[in-house]
Amino acid sequence: MWLHLLQRHDLAGWIWSIAIFVAHLLVVARALTRPNRTPASRVAWVAVILSVPALGVIAYLLLGETSIGHARMERLRRTERLLEAPKNDDTAVVDVPPRINALFDLCHSINGFRPVAGNRIALLGHPNAPIDQPKLDCRAAIDTLIADIEQAREHVHIAFYIWLDDDAGGRVADAVSAAARRGVQCRVMVDALGSRAFTQGPRWRQLRDAGVKLLKTLNDIARWRHFAFSRADLRDHRKIVVIDNRIAYCGSQNCADPEFEVKPQFAPWIDMLLRCEGPIVRQQQSLFLSGWIAEAGEPGLEGLPVAQPVPTRFDENVIAQVFETGPITRHNAMSDMFAACMYAARRELLITTPYFMPDEAILRALCAAPRRGVKATIIFPAKNDSWLVGNACRSTYADLLACGVAVHEYPLGLLHSKSLTLDGQLALVGSANMDRRSLELNFENNMLIADADVVAAIHARQSGYLAASRPVTLDEVRAWPLHQRLVQNTVAMMAPVL
To answer: Of residues 237, 385, 435, 451, which has the active-site annotation?
Structure first.
């Protein structure tokens, strides 16, 4: 009898072992054959799956896929087809300076929008903010946004990744609620994870009771039925505001105080926000509606970007173009845009980004800039709120500095601005970081701008960050202790799976 039980136990053990082995092989096969994945990412995932039995398989099921689900994919693509009008608008056709025309062509290939002229774009901020008080710029930007909402007559459309119930977030919620009560159509779209505390609190109920239409995006992405087919932490990272099809906002700023109460030890959050008027507003409206219609299912809005008269065309010859990326857009679209801008620089390249875990294309483009005679500078926050990203970022310092890129660390808070200027001619500003999340996972929105005055204003803000920052030297990096470099390079090696 005991022999029989032992034999049965051995048989069950063999069956279980074989099942585990087959499961590992199947997941490894999926990691190796999934399209749109770099060789480094394949190697990293295979290493994780095989070196950490069972847990590696679970990690891949949770984090290894980037699909948002077939049904959502179809809804988003159907909505994109409904919103073709602004892309085919004849008023959008402008002459772009030949040297930067290729960048606008690349931008056009992502979402189909064309560059438009006749815009008025202002970098928001406090006119007399001292260099050690950058949070005044962020407060002034929120004040301007609230003033515009208070003047709204037809609609207010808002999309934020993070909305907090603090002073700034509360005042914006009050302004939107008041607008809805006076008959303005208000729609608020926030990321279900990034704004989860806000959506579970009294301000969300206040907005709903005032008649604001509300949407928590990607609210179902983390449910168990998605785990084997999608990544559980896909997020809507966009920041978009459109008021009356006349004014739009774009940048890195969330709806929160610069003190950012959920992570006060890293505060203040230092951001950049642009206020836009003119034909570019139609494109921003389309980006908002592409998410709203697909997720909320509200019919009849697809004609809104062009239903009203063409937004005022100003005398300023400000050329701009928007684009967004995410799980449904062409793979490497955001990376291609960053790298192309870096290669387009001829004299100067100045970049700020809080999260830097670049893919090979971006790192090589940035390192090549000084070798082509370009003065290349990049500014990071001195203290990062993500331990993983901070270490992965610093693992690149040796390469950057050895190639001649000037690396600076900003000590007055978490420099959250995502900005790139080149040669005083072009700027790229928006929600996207130069990390794997923004490049491969999140929904992001950016704006490409060609105008000497607007670019000069953005460059001046960047120069203010630079003046307050500390330069990092190659000798300093080479003197880092072995254990520090081991941690940094190990984290960086695993970047493709983070």
So the answer is: 237
Query: 244 an active-site residue?
Result: yes
Cα–Cα–Cα angle for 202, 204, 206, rounded to 5 degrees: 70
The tokens for 16 are 């279980």
Catalytic residue among 157, 408, 418, 459: 418
Active-site hit among 135, 226, 239, 408:
239
Q: Find out whether 215 and 181 touch, Cβ atoms under 8 Å.
A: no
Q: Which two tokens stand for residue 319?
A: 């050329």
Q: Contact, 112 vs 86, CB < 8 A?
A: no
Radius of gyration of the chain (CA): 24
Tens digit of pLDDT at every position of the chain (498 positions): 544 544 555 666 677 677 777 776 777 677 667 766 667 677 677 777 777 777 767 667 666 666 666 677 777 777 777 777 566 665 555 777 787 899 999 999 999 999 999 999 999 998 877 877 888 889 999 999 999 999 999 999 999 999 999 999 999 999 999 999 999 999 999 999 999 999 999 999 999 999 999 999 988 765 444 444 555 667 899 999 999 999 999 999 999 999 999 999 999 999 999 999 999 999 999 999 988 988 888 877 877 776 555 555 676 689 999 999 988 888 889 999 999 999 999 999 999 999 999 999 999 999 999 999 999 999 999 999 999 999 999 999 999 999 999 999 999 999 999 999 999 999 999 999 999 889 988 999 999 999 999 999 999 999 999 999 999 999 999 999 999 998 988 888 777 666
126 counts as catalytic:
no
Q: What is the DSSP letter of 161?
A: S
